[in-house]
Amino acid sequence: MAEPQEVETALVGEVAPGDVVLVHAGVALTRLDRAAPAQDREEAAA
Amino acid sequence: VRFVDEFRDAELGRALAGEILSAVEPGRHYKVMEVCGGHTHSIYKYGIDDLLPENVELVHGPGCPVCVIPMGRVDDGIALAHEPGVILTCFGDMMRVPGSDGTLMDAKAQGADIRMVYSPLDALRIARENPDRDVVFFAIGFETTAPSTALTLKRAKAEGVRNFFCICSHVTIVPPLRALLESPDLRLDGFIGPGHVSTVVGARPFEFIPADYGRPVVVSGFEPLDVLQGILMVLRQLGEGRCEVENQYKRVVPYEGNIRALEILSEVFELRPHFEWRGLGFISQSALRLSGAYADFDAERRWSVPNARVADPKACQCGEVLKGVIKPWECKVFGTACTPERPIGTCMVSSEGACAAYYNFGRFAREREVV
After folding, report:
1. Nearest chain A alpha carbon to B253
2. I need a labelling partner for B259 at 20 to 30 A (CA). Which of B38, B96, B101, B195 fits?
3. How far apart are CA B192 and CA B36, in angstroms?
């Protein structure tokens, strides 16, 4: 099992188990459930 | 994997490729720049260029953070690593970027204490564990990475860590794009905007591109369907005579960016008057340095660094690759004297570099046949 990594969450607020965040260089930059993936695709195809 | 697998669907990819084909006008040549090195990597990893019509040309932009670091800046890092008592920390890619007299990896082999980290927070941990040493973090990257450095510096300040320093080489994305748009030797029709940078800065900063230069921008993600969709959205704008900033990467990028991150960046950093970019030369207000409030952590104030301008090796054409003027395979040393194992130029070092992407995903052989 991979060693646990420290992630700074100051930029995204409180996180709970199951939350999906985009992490770059040890920092969570944003939450990933902003829009459903299908919505992105539908908008582009429209 | 959620948010990954659904964006690698081959059937949807072929459908998007068909949409792209129907969106282009026969006889018209389209040059679209993908700004970010992450896009370049995806394009060659997934063979996206093979799905495009021949009259759609992708031009690689300057958005690889390692690639744009000039040789003189590497020399500055090596000089700091040779200071007595210093532990220099940096991301892995930086270890192999050539300076005028070797790489950080070479300096490490010669005895300098240089350690690879995955995050500035790792560098801060090393500083805590080595209170009798001075630990310097070699900070590189665009606005995507700068918040990580800023938060680490805030933490170091809050904890009263006195032996942690930063040589700040963070750069900003808008000034080089403006420089490229002002360049007379490059005609571009549109841009695939940088996804992860936009997570922090938002899509709004790119509004100057349609407003001042009449070119569309689509901020896009990095999975194959993201990139294809981004290209399609640019082509649709061109076909419909529209010219605006669109956001394909809505699941990640808020149009206004991450306000908290921007606040922290403005607290910890200030703009440098000018900064040298590999291939692009000096660009005004295109990089960050530590603000006065964080001067005690500034390695360039604590030690004297050479700060010399070093010309690239004559054989290296990274500058032209970074400006999109030539393709990687058109460089004189691509794949011969310059390979990922023994890079001469930065574009062959990082996985986000256009040359490394071409080389690693088998484009080398195919393109040489074309020559």
Report:
1. A30
2. B38
3. 8
In one letter, which amino acid is A9? T
pLDDT tens-digit profile of B88-125?
A: 999 999 999 999 999 999 999 999 999 999 999 999 99
pTM of the model: 0.91
Contacts of B7 (CB under 8 A, 6+ apart): A37, B221, B223, B224, B225, B226
Nearest Cα residue in chain A from B90: A25
Strand spans (E) along chain B: 30-36, 56-63, 86-90, 114-116, 134-141, 164-170, 190-193, 217-219, 245-247, 269-271, 274-277, 281-284, 288-290
Is pLDDT at B282 greater than 60 in this prediction?
A: yes
CA distances from B350 to B92, B94, B315, B364 (A): 9, 8, 19, 16
What ipTM score was computed for the predicted complex, to two decimals? 0.85
Q: Cβ of B6 and A30 within 8 Å?
A: no
